[in-house]
Design goal:
By secondary structure, the protein is an alpha/beta fold. It has eleven helices and twelve strands. It folds into two domains: 168 residues, NAD(P)-binding Rossmann-like Domain (Rossmann fold), CATH 3.40.50; 105 residues, Alpha-Beta Complex (UDP-galactose 4-epimerase, domain 1), CATH 3.90.25. The strands form three sheets. It has a seven-stranded parallel β-sheet with strand order 3-2-1-4-5-6-10, sandwiched between helices. A three-stranded mixed β-sheet has the order 7-9-11. A two-stranded parallel sheet has the order 8-12. Bound molecules: NADP nicotinamide-adenine-dinucleotide phosphate (NAP).
Length: 297
């Protein structure tokens, strides 16, 4: 019998891309899905399917014949963002059920056990709930901490103002992680298919870090060792996000997320262990990714 195909949704993203790369390196039959045909072309050995997860028919086609799938709710910044997330969670669950896919790894987040008050993470709660109700589907929900890649949005202000600003408390010590490390774990588990029923795996990064420590690491990587971190009020953070082009609604969601992190409502739920710890430090990521992007941008 032909080997069943692995399907990676969002295969050009921060996490989906390394997942697809690893599966291809392991020479597994692979189908990759995203909206940009040009970006998907990087996965030359995979079957490429161009389309949106908003389209139930596209999702059904994407999952047809899949032995295992990597699924995610892509970031969505348009109007009705929370409703969009809930709708797409339903489309993904229905697609997995219709195609009788036995295994899925879902990209979730720390805090996804909470139904509300967590900004966009509440959509990941819905995703986990919907996938958990799909008959015959074994779901591994990966719950990583805060992606290092979020710090790329600081490039503009670091360059123009010479400091790093955000709504997180300067001494908030929390799990932060390289998105590529999340992808490595997802690919390893997909290759092993070593879970049954519902499993949750938190991912805590190399160590917990504070925004002040992050600013120091970013600064050291770009020759500004004294790069300071400035905490913004929630109102100023909201205004900054709107100025950057986000809708009022999406800005409010991201401020709600920052508040939930600051208040400790979103935090690691399990103790750090070898299984939750990943290799890339903020210093290494800053040297390899942040410095390169700052030079390029
Ligand atoms: N940022 C964090 O700190 C953090 C922490 C924990 C969990 N997460 C979660 O991780 C998930 C992914 O975040 P990310 O930063 O990895 O995203 P990302 O890098 O933007 O990747 C999203 C992927 O989905 C694709 N995509 C976007 N819209 C799509 C659509 N409508 N239909 C089909 N494909 C679509 C993108 O490619 P195209 O644009 O070409 O379609 C891309 O391949 C989100 O659910 C987020 O909540 C984030």
């Amino acid at each position: 019998m032909a080997e069943k195909v692995y399907v990676v949704l969002g295969a050009t993203g921060h996490v989906g891309s390394p997942v697809a790369r690893r599966l291809a390196e392991a020479r597994r039959p692979l189908r990759v899905v995203a909206r940009s045909a040009a970006a998907l072309a990087a996965h030359a050995d995979a079957e490429q399917l161009v389309g949106s997860v908003e389209d139930p028919e596209l999702v059904r086609r994407a999952l047809d014949g899949a032995g295992a799938a990597f699924v995610q709710l892509p970031p969505y910044l348009g109007p009705g963002a929370r409703a969009w997330q809930d709708r797409v969670a339903g489309i993904l669950a229905d697609g997995l059920e219709a195609a009788r896919v036995p295994y899925a790894v879902a990209l979730s987040s720390l805090g996804a056990q909470l139904a509300s008050g967590t900004g966009p993470v509440a959509g990941l709660h819905t995703l986990e709930e919907r996938l958990g109700r799909v008959p015959g589907l074994s779901v591994l929900a990966l719950r990583p901490g805060y992606f290092f890649e979020n710090h790329l949005s600081a490039i503009g202000v670091v360059r123009s103002a010479g400091f790093y600003a955000g709504a997180l408390a300067p001494e908030l010590r929390m799990a932060q992680i390289a998105a590529a490390d999340v992808g490595e774990v997802a690919a390893r588990r997909l290759l092993a298919l070593d879970w049954r029923g519902r499993e949750i795996q938190e991912l805590h990064g190399e160590r917990d870090v504070t925004p002040v420590e992050v600013a120091r690491a970013l600064g050291a990587a770009i020759g500004k060792p004294d790069l300071a971190y400035v905490q913004l009020s929630y109102a100023d953070a909201h205004a900054g996000l709107v100025q950057a082009g986000l809708s009022e609604e999406v800005a409010a969601l991201y401020v709600e997320l920052a508040r939930a992190l600051n208040d400790g409502r979103i935090a690691s739920d399990e103790p750090r262990s070898p299984a939750t710890t990943t290799p890339t430090s903020i210093e290494a990521w800053a040297r390899e990714v942040f410095a390169r992007e700052l030079r390029a941008g």
